[in-house]
Amino acid sequence: MKPLPGFRDLFPEDFARRNYMVGKWREAARRYGFVEFDGPTLESAELYRKKNSGGEILGQLYEFIDKGERAVALRPEVTPTLARMITARHRDFPKPMRWFNVGTCFRYERQQRGRLREFLQFNCDLVGDASPAADAEVISLLIDLLRSFGLGPEDFAIRLSDRAAWHDFMTLHGVEKEKAGEFLTIVDRMEKMPPEKTEELLAPFGIASATLQEFIAHAEIPALAPLLADLEARGLREYVRPDLGVVRGLAYYTGVVFEAFALRAGLRAIAGGGRYDRLLADLSDGSADLPAVGFGIGDAVLLELLNECPTAKAQEVAALKADAPVQIYLVIADQTHRSNALFLAQQLRGEGWRVGFPLAQEKVGKQFGSAESLGASHAIVVGAEWPEVKVKRLSDRMEQELDHATLAVWLSEEEGRNLKLET
Amino acid sequence: MKPLPGFRDLFPEDFARRNYMVGKWREAARRYGFVEFDGPTLESAELYRKKNSGGEILGQLYEFIDKGERAVALRPEVTPTLARMITARHRDFPKPMRWFNVGTCFRYERQQRGRLREFLQFNCDLVGDASPAADAEVISLLIDLLRSFGLGPEDFAIRLSDRAAWHDFMTLHGVEKEKAGEFLTIVDRMEKMPPEKTEELLAPFGIASATLQEFIAHAEIPALAPLLADLEARGLREYVRPDLGVVRGLAYYTGVVFEAFALRAGLRAIAGGGRYDRLLADLSDGSADLPAVGFGIGDAVLLELLNECPTAKAQEVAALKADAPVQIYLVIADQTHRSNALFLAQQLRGEGWRVGFPLAQEKVGKQFGSAESLGASHAIVVGAEWPEVKVKRLSDRMEQELDHATLAVWLSEEEGRNLKLET
Fold first, then answer.
1. Do A158 and A217 fall within a single domain?
2. Are residues A136 and A154 in contact, defined by beta-carbon separation less than 8 angstroms?
């Protein structure tokens, strides 16, 4: 039996990659003072109907009637839950609120490469501050997050745009307010569509695609100036490119929008976000009228990016190697000393080490093989010399005899070699 | 709008508790050489029908038909997924396999205090070794896990039993094989039922409850001797109590069964497990004929236990305090130096510190208030003295002037005060 199509089994080697990635997500968010929240995986289906952030998601809902006759749905995104939670308790928290979430989401997508039906998403939202300083914090967090994986300016860039500039454009060219969403969707997809298709879709608006391209290529975005100055002061300006070609698909953005963009094999968006100053008020019927800015990034697209970028990949490989299942392996050379080995195993585990040993009687050579295959850096031979033990560093076969009572101290001196439990 | 009944919103303070707990779960498992896996949240409903580990779960399934006409279900437990994954790839892994999972599970339980419909479970399974040494590893892990929360022998005990002893009892008293499950369920619930009820349920078996009680009180369990000797060698014997009164509800256990039991307010099971040597073979139609032993523990019952035990609670409170959202707060005393503060913030974040600062112009007193309320240990005043800054330790109001370029070094010397990012 296999998992359902679009769902994944994460075997330990897969989980280790995810864990590496999620660890970096959390570290980056915490360095920016963000705190983690989570909500239910299953919500009332009404929560998503009410929001309707862009029709597509509703058609992909995993929804059903539960045993209590409630219409329920697996969450397709976390923002509606965030809005619900903030509405309920925003008065309890000083502003701005810096909240992040690492959560599983579900969408019944058409089956195609890289499209999953259950995926992990990292969302960061800064709520209660409408200034460019807040935009800069969130964009800096996204840049630092990507840098923490060993990605550099040759691997990614942040394309920065402003919905307000597009609203001005629409006003100037007579796009009706009710048609704004449709128009912005065309702009959003333009880069992926053949020019004839764009021309065809724009026809009802009476706008030529050349007019659009001209606007994207040459219009200034003066509203971005304070944000760019802020990023400049942080030393992050080189990562950011003002680019009106970015508008983002979701209907609810009101100001700055941005997209992290892969620059190597296949240019494509790897994360996106923006300012949504009216969404929380809309979702809470006005009771939580708070401006907000945030972004989201998915696991699959990021893992693919790491595979493409040599420095990042090397860093990941080194980190996974350092995170081996076992750090110290006890080789039991003499079964009459199994009790002593058990005692020593507990003692070292108590110090925080990851310790393995054979559960049954095995030849010494086989035990060394287990030590190597489990990734141990040191083997400790317990045998007739007890209370002396032999410590063997597996990287260079260095050997040393020690009293077992002094072992913990000796091992902690080896910490400089990056051996100690790093979690 | 609220979450669905039986589902939880985890606001940041709730999430911090969960994070503390899950961190300890993972650390304990890793010290024993276990590696983490995960599977899909949604599986084919057939996977749970096939297993049928004890009728009750099937009646509580969140099941529905997806948009592709598949009968699917939210996982009520992770063991069937583990069995499916092991069946698919067990030949790729050396034995024994030590696997753990931290996963969300779903059961449509009747609404009552402490019963959740979405809950987090920690499962550890050692697969491919049928010896008491394997049982001892898993039980030691459970003990060490609970000890890592600051729980001691006055807070919990492990009650240890053996299904084999009960099978002997059933043979002796003529309980038919097909009735074994029903009989064991009665024994399992006996402690919580009025004696008349037990008597009534036992009547069809022709066994008096006094006979059962006599057996529980006086029978020896010689099969436990090697396991107990192993735990003795590890220094963990005091946590374990042989007790035939424990049988565990699930039908699939074949040998040792055990239960971690709370000893303070309200005696009750907080975790349970045992040996299941035939389950994997049954679920894989014989293709993965591997013995296994494991346990599971849920989040709600453990958090409740921590609340009851003073040492554990004090440890948790201290850990959460040390995990404050912000470690260093930059007080911007002079707005003309905002750019320098931004630069400094990025530099300190690059060193791994959790850094906060005001997004807008604020009075210095208010900024110190933010520093305190966010849990910062140090405030750094950036103002007219730049490139000098004033460092203020908030615990004792110690002040020092430093060149900002030497700040990173100065702060790393403060590490001994438990300030540095601990993730």
1. yes
2. no
Are A286 and A358 in the same domain? no
pLDDT at A358 over 90: yes
3 state DSSP class of A315 = helix
Determine the Cα–Cα distance for residues B115 and B37; give it in Å rounded to an integer: 26
pTM: 0.94
Digit-coded pLDDT (tens) for B207-239: 998 999 999 998 889 899 999 999 999 999 999
Residues of B whose CB is below 8 A from A74: 41-42, 74
Instruction: Give the closest-approach CA distance of B377 to chain A in angstroms.
Output: 13
CA distance A129 to A192: 34
- Burial of B151 from C-beta contacts in 10 A (0-12 / 13-18 / 19+): buried
CA distance A80 to chain B (A): 11
Whether B290 and B90 have beta carbons less than 8 Å apart is answered as: yes
On whether residue B1 sits in a domain, the answer given is no
CB contact under 8 A, B356 and A33: yes
Q: Which of B274, B289, B319 is the last residue of a domain?
A: B319
Same structural domain for residues B258 and B344? no
Q: Are A107 and A48 in contact (CB under 8 A)?
A: no
pLDDT of the residue at B419: 46
Domain-located, residue A184: yes
Residue A74: is its pLDDT beyond 60?
yes
The answer to whether the CB atoms of A346 and B41 lie below 8 A apart is no
Q: Which domain holds residue A401?
A: 325-417
Length of chain B (residues): 423
How are beta strands B328-332 and B355-356 bridged, if at all?
Answer: parallel
Q: Assess whether A373 and A412 both reside in one domain.
A: yes
ipTM summary value: 0.93
Q: How far is B304 from chain A (nearest CA, A)?
A: 20
Q: How far is CA B421 from CA A58, A410, B14, B81, B270, in A?
A: 41, 26, 20, 35, 32
CATH of the domain at A54: 3.30.930.10
Closest by CA position to A370, among listed A386, A384, A382, A359: A359
pLDDT tens digits for A234-251? 999 999 999 999 988 777
Q: What integer is the mean pLDDT of A374-381?
A: 96
Write the DSSP string, B224-240: GHHHHHHHHHTT-GGGE
pLDDT at residue A420, as a whole number: 46
Which chain B residues are within 8 Å of A360, Cβ to Cβ? 129, 131, 133
CA-nearest of B392, B410, B405, B385 to B344 is: B405
Which tens digits make up the pLDDT trace of B146-175?
A: 999 999 999 999 999 999 999 999 999 999
The pLDDT assigned to A181 comes to 85
Query: Would you say B376 and B322 are in contact if contact means Cβ atoms under 8 Å apart?
Result: no
